[in-house]
Fold this sequence. Notes:
Blueprint (H helix, E strand, L loop, with lengths): L3 H20 L3 H24 L4 H13 L1 H12 L3 H5 L1 H14 L6 H6 L2 H14 L7 E8 H14 L3 E6 L6 H15 L3 E7 L8 H10 L2 E5 L19 E4 L3 E5 L17 E10 L2 H16 L6 H4 L11 E7 L7 H11 L4 E5 L3 E2 L2 H12 L3 E7 L5 H8 L2 H7 L2 E5 L3 E2 L3 E4 L3 E5 L3 E2 H5 L3 E7 L2 H15 L1 E3 L2 H4 L4 H13 L4
Parallel strand pairs: 2-3, 3-4, 7-13, 9-11, 10-16, 11-12
Antiparallel strand pairs: 1-7, 2-5, 5-6, 6-7, 8-17, 9-14, 12-18, 14-15, 15-17
Helix pairs in contact: 1-2, 2-3, 3-4, 6-12, 8-14, 9-10, 10-11, 14-15, 16-21
Amino acid sequence: MKNIVGIGLLILMLVSTWHFLLNGVDGGLIFYSSLILTIFLVIIGFNIFLENRDPIQTITWLVIFCAFPFIGFIFYFLFGRNFRKDRIFRKKYFLDKQTFVKISGEAGYNERIMEMGEHPQQLITLANRLGNSPVSFTTETRVLRNGEETFSNIIEELKKARHHIHLEYYIVRDDRIGGRLKDILIQKVKEGVKVRFLYDAVGSWKLARSYIDELKNAGAEMVAFGPLHLPLLNNKFNFRNHRKIIVIDGSVGFIGGLNIGDEYLGQDQKFGSWRDTHLIIKGEAVRTLQLIFLQDWYYSTNNSFLSDEYLMTGMPNHHGYGGVQLIGGGPDSEWTIIKSIFFKMITSAEKSVWIASPYFVPDDNILQALKVAALSGLDVRLLVPKNPDKRIVFHASRTYFPELLASGVRIFQYNEGFMHSKIIIVDDQMASIGTTNIDMRSFHLNFEVNAFLYRTESAQQLVNDYMEDIKVSKEVEIDEFSKRNFGLKLLESTCRLLSPLL
């Protein structure tokens, strides 16, 4: 049943077109189209049932098919197909695992892990086992809290490149900042630097062909992740590369929430200020970020560069910075890696759990963990945007507010522009920063990457930044929130109904 939706849609179109050419629009056209649609919906429904998805998700799909057959068919084609790790990405998953296992254990750091204490030690062990990625105690990190700071550091480091530049982004725009980065990359190619640029085919669908051609003509390699050559029969549409990665000469890296576009510099007329968080990494842990990029590049091009030239580049060692662990997660994984680590962070917290997420649509496990933590007396806070950029997700997220508030979770809505940071801070000592939202798409469908920080200066900086963000946010009060009008509550509930389908 691999391509049943695409085949069904194609047959439906062919039969409808053939009948229309012969007879025009009549009852027969409607009858045959409805019959074909019904047959394929029955097959799809049976297939969903056999996939043993979450019961709520299964029931939601079946209800949608019964109530809105054609819309449900199209929606399933775009978002619902589940060809997970054992099909599309089997080769990628096992290659990634073998590569990460190969480098694990090279650094003698067992004693340092023991020194971190039981709480961080458990989290490090879990992340290592799920993500096959060692923790580094010789890596320097620094938090970048907005677009101006992020891009100024990126440009500064790009200009220093001598051997290679690797970029991997979900969204790339041909605007002012996109053009400036393009010009720098072209200049570096002329200087003999190897440039490889991986962009997501869906996230960057608006990217001008001229932008790509200019880079390619200059000698850079620019490749689309998950191209949709035959969208009607393509089963990868729903699995996107949401990562934001830059690796320069194997010794400097960037990850975080910012894509490449002027809106991330606060130049969007709708939102104005754009609050986001990025991270610059220098030292040993950059090798893991490099591996994530090289594996994604191999998956997209069948060209492998897993050699000492890219993995052993004389990286400087920095001491006294705490632990840094880079973890990549995605639909190719045997486990829901990043979600599992988030769950462990929340359930093992002793004092506090602070979360910032622009798109908050948790599954039952994360939701229950947050409520239990708050009911246990922990300081649990959630920071979300006041204004939406994706309305379905925004309204769906608000349906979780009443039960969270009732359990003692404090919710704050960021007021100064749009808040796009993706942060978790536990006990003021451990933190996560990266591309992963607290939603089902990030947990189950997207390729994501996060940095986990253990007792680093950057973790403390995230604590300070979070407190500053709270100062310009308004706390949601349960009495006031419950006074929303019926129409708004109905809209929110409808959006939540759709959320398991995303």
